[in-house]
Specification:
Alpha-Beta Plaits; Rossmann fold; 17 strands; Dihydrodipicolinate Reductase, domain 2; elongated; six-stranded parallel sheet; 3 domains; alpha/beta
């Protein structure tokens, strides 16, 4: 029986999870793949800490080059993270005609086009199922399972940290900072959480998924990104009263001449299955023209869920090696000559509905002034909601709009902010009427 040798770069949480599965599930993997997956070497600067895994004959070394330059290693798994050493190691591995598996979404989102080209030039595979959605098979679904579909839209909860925080605010009435602290104590959030809570982690994943869904070059820089720092229990309670839930969504939509790609807090109706995805769980809804709406749900992070996704890539590549082929499935789902450059819609050109909340002094005529400015900017109001005075004597005014253009809304908010009776910065949350069942 053929033996396929594997090297792992990085022996942190994910790397240890991959090693654990390769060791503990070797019999199952051999029976399913028809070859022995042999973990030959692991490289990490920390070779002393006990990860609780019996490595047996597997070597643990401090030098990544011993794996990258080992002629006997067929597949290299990168779990270092970051965009410096990881990029250098992956490029060198591909140039050495080694197949590479990575969970590094930031690297794929930022430099994926270059990495894909290098893999093609050297006729090896580059796989990254674990980069998006943890154990959910999003990459495989878009690249293979939904191959006969034009993907009309995708909407996803792709960051467990943000989803946990929003769940705590919604269910317990927690303030943002308190919910974040709980997420950190439970290990859902990093000590420095900005990558998650400011939406950038989700944007990395959306950049990758957009490319696979639509056959376009990976484009991270043009994605509009907003995080959840400014979401308050007040807005969540208003949303509930209207039959909505607030989630940080990655939204991708295909139009005739452009793609929508945006990440921001979004109000979705309670009839949308995504509204019921809670705690640190992830989910994505995909709308294909042949399948209709499909939804994937699962753990988006964690040692074993992520390692499971890495092993799925290893298995695919191992099967290719057994058959003596490479590049059977195009890395981005389309042959290179069919990859297009389609622009991402500028945010100011977006049309959607809006939730708006203003805090105003309880003076006569404030509501008419706000309404007048919205009307002057072609924004039609669907409903107005005004509650009693707050502890500071001010009055919250909430409005739901009909469909309006983002540019009109931003211009109106600037004008409304200049009204003397309006206190603080107005709050807007975009509304998506998607996947109602």
């Amino acid at each position: 029986m053929k033996t396929i040798n594997i090297g792992i770069l990085g022996y942190g949480i994910v790397g240890a999870g991959v090693a654990k599965l390769l060791k503990e599930k070797q019999e199952l993997l051999t029976s399913r793949i028809g070859a022995v997956l042999n973990l030959k070497t692991i490289a990490d600067i920390d070779t002393k800490t006990d990860r609780g895994i019996d490595l047996g004959t597997t070597a643990l070394v401090p030098d990544a080059q011993k794996i990258i330059n080992d002629p006997d290693i067929d597949i290299i798994v990168e779990t270092i993270g970051g965009e410096t050493f990881a990029k250098e190691f992956i490029l060198k591995a591909l140039e050495n005609r080694k197949h590479v598996v990575t969970a590094n979404k930031a690297l794929i989102a930022g430099f994926g086009n270059d990495l894909v080209n290098t893999a093609r030039e050297n006729q090896v595979d580059l796989a990254f199922e674990a980069s998006c959605g943890g154990c959910m098979p999003i990459i495989k679904s878009l690249r293979e399972s939904l191959v006969a579909n034009n993907i009309k839209s995708m909407s996803g909860i792709l960051n467990g940290t943000c989803n946990y925080i929003l769940t705590k605010i919604s269910n317990d009435g927690s303030e943002f900072e308190d919910a974040l602290k709980q997420a950190q104590e439970l290990g859902f959030a990093e000590a420095e959480p900005s990558l998650d809570i400011d939406g950038y982690d989700t944007a990395h994943k959306l950049a990758i998924l957009n490319s696979l869904a639509h056959g376009i070059k990976i484009n991270l820089k043009d994605i509009h990104v907003e995080g959840i720092r400014n979401i308050t229990p007040v807005d969540i309670e208003f949303a509930k009263s209207f039959g909505y839930t607030i989630k940080l969504l990655a939204i991708g939509k295909m139009h005739e001449n452009h793609v929508e790609a945006r990440v921001h807090p979004t109000m979705i109706p309670d009839t949308n299955p995504l509204s019921h995805v809670e705690q640190s769980m992830n989910a994505i809804a995909i709308d294909g023209d042949a399948t209709g709406q499909t939804m994937l749900y699962g753990h988006g992070a964690g040692m074993m869920p992520t390692a499971s996704a890495v092993l799925s890539d290893i298995a695919d590549i191992a099967r290719n090696i057994i058959c003596g082929i490479g590049g059977r499935v195009p890395i981005l789902g389309y042959p290179e000559e069919n990859i297009k450059s389609i622009p991402i819609l500028p945010m100011e050109e977006l049309y959607t509905r809006y939730y708006m909340r203003f805090e105003a002094q309880d003076n006569p005529g404030v509501l008419s002034k706000i309404s007048g400015i919205l009307g002057d900017n072609k924004i039609s109001i669907e409903s107005v909601h005004q509650k009693g005075r707050m502890d500071n004597g001010n009055v919250p005014i909430v409005m739901i709009t009909h469909i309006a253009k983002e540019a009109w809304v931003q211009q109106a908010l600037k004008q409304i902010s200049s009204i003397d009776s309006v206190v603080g910065i107005p709050v807007i949350i975009r509304i998506e009427e998607i996947i109602q069942e």
